[in-house]
Design a protein that fits this description.
The complex is a heterodimer of chains A (312) and B (489). In chain A, 74% of the residues lie in helices and 0% in strands. Chain A has 312 residues and is mainly α. Chain A is globular and about 55 Å long. The chains are: A mainly alpha (312), B alpha+beta (489).
Amino acid sequence: MLSSTADNLFWAARYAERAGNVARGIGVASRMAAVSARLGDEVEEWRALLTATGGDGGFYRKYEAPTEEATIHWLVFDPDNHSGIIPCFEAARRNGRAVRTALTVDMWEALNDSWNHLRQLTPEAVEGEALPDFLSWVRDRVTLFNGASHDTMLRTEAWRFVHLGMMLERADNTARLLDVRHQLFAQSDDTVADYVQLQAVLRSVSAVRSYQWIYRDRLSAKRVAELLLLRPELPRSLAACHGQVSKTLEAIAEGQGGRRGECHRIAGLLAAELRYGRIEEILDEGLHEFLTRTIARTAELGAAIEEFYIKH
Amino acid sequence: MAQSKIAFDEMRAEDGVRAAYAEIERWLRATPRELLDRKRREAELLFRRIGITFAVYGEGGDPERLIPFDIIPRIIARSEWDRLAVGLRQRVLALNAFLADVYGKQEIIKAGKIPAALVLENEGYRAEMVGITPPGGVFTQIAGIDMVRTGPDEFFVLEDNCRTPSGVSYMLENREAMLRLFPRLCARHKIAPVGRYPEELLTTLKAVAPARAGDDPTVVILTPGPYNSAYYEHCFLADEMGVEVVEGNDLFVQDQVVYMRTTAGPKRVDVVYRRIDDEFLDPEVFRPDSLVGVPGLMGAYRAGNVTLANAPGAGIADDKAIYPYVPEMVRFYLGEEPLLANVPTFLCERDEDRKYVLSNLDKLVVKLAKGSGGYGMLIGPHATKEMRAEFHARILAKPHDYIAQPTLALSTCPTVADQGIAPRHVDLRPFVLSGKEVRIVPGGLTRVALKEGSLVVNSSQGGGTKDTWVLEDEGPDVPMAQSQVQAAR
């Protein structure tokens, strides 16, 4: 496959996944803000979300404080925020359009219809009571795109690069969401506020029910961390995502007669560490330290993939 | 052009509805306006969803626009098409022979059939091509011949397009749209299918690959990128043929061999169907500031390691000043009389022609010999005295920049207009493929001037498109149609 095609597919999938993750993030933050408004620190929630989405530097250059209004505008509309929902869809579509021939019609329509809708979006459509509907629409659209690729793409290299982008982005997202609330996992007292926060973490990866299915017990910080980091059953856990990343890279290598490089080594290492890691050791090291390391390693992996397959 | 003359209506002859249109006429009478409007909206939605747009950047407004699609098809009967097809084949054979000649032995010049300066000093002539014989001797593998009709048996070639003619994706997508919108109307006609075009194109491109490429040459489409107005078409054709669409950056040349960058390393390329202009192909040979080309591409081409379709320099054959000589080419190379007529053309650089043009400016259309897209024209009958005076001066100052033609009454087809169904002027661009043999898919792109009375069909100036139906017979069998029409009138 053309290197530039692989690049476009990889990024189309990454940006689509990112848009969905941002919508999840906003949904949880606005729910939490509604709860903590009574406690008087709802701004904290928006601040945390800005950190998780990575672009907070850009935000503070343009806006004074992370109010709900400013944060949502930044995360949905602002063209300066490359991780905003509309810029993400635009980038996903731009990448998809550049490789129209490599996408299936269903995938293209999922992106194109979304973009046609979003470019007519008014600020009122994401305000107040309308917000939850908008967010679930975004998640639906991303699910549609992911489902369309899953259902309609030939299982060739094109599909593997799409899957790779999706999984790498998802791994990165889960790590960031968890990292924002890492303090929660350092202490052991069991307050009501902690409970609400743990629930928010689970909700942001659609795992409230999954937790109950696996542990059948009260929420505990340690188990939530284990679920999101190490449990391969949860499709958004780091272990599951990095397992898929490594498996996909291996499949690409097999398809090319065993051609491998640095990216395969990093991916294998990351996957193994998560596959065989213990939550006690991770919490002993410090969750923040572990996640910082993993996020950096994921970025390194992205660069190595590009080095090996795209810019040779 | 000439509103003074009455345009030929392709649906209604003086003695009633023409046979090929009998069913369409009946359908139009039976279909309520609301339904046509609904179908029109559906069509627009369809095109928007599939993303069939042409890109207009830097003008403000929507950068991805739709070319308006008119839902009433344009019909051509089998016998009419057969005559056209034979003529198109002949014309393109002659154009290719001309190209091989002017970059080879130049016999047509030596024979005095065409002035040497007109060819050799023409901007479209590429001295870099002298001495190169592409595989099969074919220079213009994909030609689009613009035809207009003025009467039941009068077809004229308005213009040849030998460089990178576009529009074929509309021919294909318009048919898809019609089949989706009006399956029953389609079924009542025996419409010659156009869907094989991509297959025919691929066969043609493979047939002109360098000999060493073997049975399964690697073909790519070279596009300037998403900002090009025809980008959708480049992707569409690549998709339909199952080949890669590449930009300049995806290709590189090493030791006079062209490769594309793939995830599995470099892959050799044999045929480049290029949709970028000559000047941008190779910054080492043509414009050094080209960012969309491939350095070294011409070297690889000259070494015979890759085929470029169409060949650089093919534009000399479709130059407006060369156009009047095409009938002569047919006689010179094929020893046949031309089957397709040219529009009579006056070259202002010829003394006799210029004299005639200057004293008949009120009857003629004056065009820039280098212009395209309907810009820089004088439409004599519609022009003011001042405009004619201005062109008079311009022609005297630079006679070889101008050509003139009589105003033609382009035929009309029924078209959905704001007030109802109304006749609108149309042209036709069939596509002619030349590889080992000449292939023509029955049909082409019909462009329609949507504004009442307008003769400008260019999409940049308010033109739309129609599906073009070449019937497998002379028309649908509709008993009583004629008498019903008479009664309805």
